[in-house]
Amino acid sequence: MDLINTPIKIGSKTVRNRVTFAPTVKFGWTDDSGIAIERFARHYEDRARGGAGLICVEATCIDPYGRLAPSQLGLWDDSQIEGHRAIAEACHRHGAVVIVQIHHGGYNTHPECGPSKGPSSVNWRDRTTEALTREEITDIRDKFIKAAVRAKKAGYDGVQLHACHAYLLNQFVSPTVNLRTDEYGGSTTNRTRLFCEIIRGIRDACGNDFIISARTPGAEPTLEEAWAIADAYIEAGVDYLQVSSGIGPDEVAYPEDLTYSRIAWLGVQMHAHVGGRVPVSVVNGILKPEQARFFVENGLADTVDSARALLADPNWARAVTDGSGYVECRNCKICFWSPFMPHKCPAVAERSKTDPDCVDIGT
Ligand SMILES: Cc1cc2nc3c(=O)[nH]c(=O)nc-3n(C[C@H](O)[C@H](O)[C@H](O)COP(=O)(O)O)c2cc1C
Known about the structure:
Elements: E1 8-10, E2 13-15, E3 19-21, H1 38-49, E4 54-61, H2 81-93, E5 97-103, E6 117-118, E7 123-124, E8 127-128, E9 130-131, H3 134-154, E10 158-162, H4 168-173, H5 188-191, H6 193-206, E11 211-217, H7 223-236, E12 240-244, H8 262-274, E13 280-282, H9 289-297, E14 303-306, H10 308-312, H11 316-322, H12 334-337, H13 346-354
Parallel strand pairs: 3-4, 3-14, 4-5, 5-10, 6-9, 10-11, 11-12, 12-13, 13-14
Antiparallel strand pairs: 1-2, 7-8
The structure holds flavin mononucleotide.
């Protein structure tokens, strides 16, 4: 059997193949209650039915004050558990392992959802940010842990902590935008302290059979610093690393002859560094089945995360694992720059001609 079709153990769960659905927010599908309506369950069910081994449900806020948009999904209140249960059950019905990404925007919090707060007071994308107090940090830590407990009650197999893409947990680990002088700033141990406290709190509350994944940067701003951050997460008990980009700009000398994206290359370097201690996933620009197979069959990554290819066609995982036909992502990046709905994804527009039940973005 090809490696891409070989099951892999992530934490205590067995994932049937090496193709995962990367988190993709759909602002505008819900209202400011943050409750998942039925459309979410159908969207994720389609990807599970389409063969994805693991599904990571989109960035879901742990606090209404950290949202990226007023219509972001939430797990800050028990009233939100039921909608997530429908998603988890829908994915399990088709044999996928399903985790949910828990998230706080930090400096990137939408102005309608709260002040721009994070580790320090810095100039950030035309806003002046406020430094969180120690009490506020403790409150956020506890809210991440409570959100994970709700995720477990909803039936998810685990959570992914979003520590990439310049959001709150990424801001804390970054030596460039975390300027604190207390025990949450300075050394790598101090900058990863909040994340590690959250990992240990979730482990205590949710047990060993609950997956804790970290979406972690491949460079922050160097490769070596990103590896030191990942080492701290592994030491604290993380089960899985899903590697993407950090605060940027990074300080990495990329090979000139790369045949795949720089972010995927960062994931490959992380995979080599981790050396099998936990599985490592790569992402970015993996739009064709042969590209996904390349990373896994050549031992460059344990799993491959796909966002846009699986938005374009929910059956893309099957195209990777058994060569079935699929509708290809055009790499137009419309969805990249504007996850606010509605927008027009040409692949989804093509698919909806033959699939009137298509509930995807772009329709
Ligand atoms: C519409 C859209 C929404 C996204 N939402 C999230 C998100 O909720 N959390 C996250 O970590 N990344 C998010 N991303 C980034 C993707 O997970 C992924 O890293 C990126 O799209 C590159 O992978 P791809 O080339 O397979 O699309 C989003 C990307 C898109 C296109």
